[in-house]
Write a structure and sequence with these properties.
The chain is mostly helical. It contains five helices and no strands.
C-alpha cells in the first residue's frame, strides 16, 4: 500500500496569487547557468550511465525464477543481474 502524502503546510508554502504569477521568472533567467541546468531534468537515462557496459536482451525465464526475485521487492532486476554476474565470474 502506498504511503499517504504528508499533510500540506500552507503557512510554509502558501498558494500563489495573481501577483506571484506575474512576478515569476524562468529559473534560467534568475539563477546562474550551472544551477539552472541542474534544475532542468532531461528525459531518459543520464549520459554515461552504463550504456557501453550493458546490452539489452530478452530472456524467457521460468516463472518460479522470476517469482523468486520479485518476492524480494523493488530492485529485483538488479538482484537478478548480480547473480548472473557472480556466476559468470566463477566460470572465467
Amino acid at each position: 500500500m502506498p504511503k499517504p502524502p504528508p499533510p500540506a503546510d500552507f503557512d510554509e508554502n502558501p498558494l500563489w496569487t495573481e501577483e506571484d504569477f506575474a512576478r515569476a521568472r524562468p529559473a534560467d533567467g534568475v539563477h546562474p547557468h550551472p544551477i539552472a541546468a541542474a534544475l532542468v531534468r532531461k528525459p531518459g537515462r543520464p549520459v554515461g550511465t552504463l550504456r557501453s557496459e550493458r546490452q539489452q536482451v530478452s530472456l524467457r525465464l521460468p516463472r518460479d525464477v522470476i517469482d523468486h526475485f520479485k518476492a524480494g521487492g523493488p530492485g529485483w532486476q538488479t538482484r537478478a543481474v548480480a547473480v548472473l554476474e557472480r556466476e559468470a565470474r566463477k566460470k572465467r
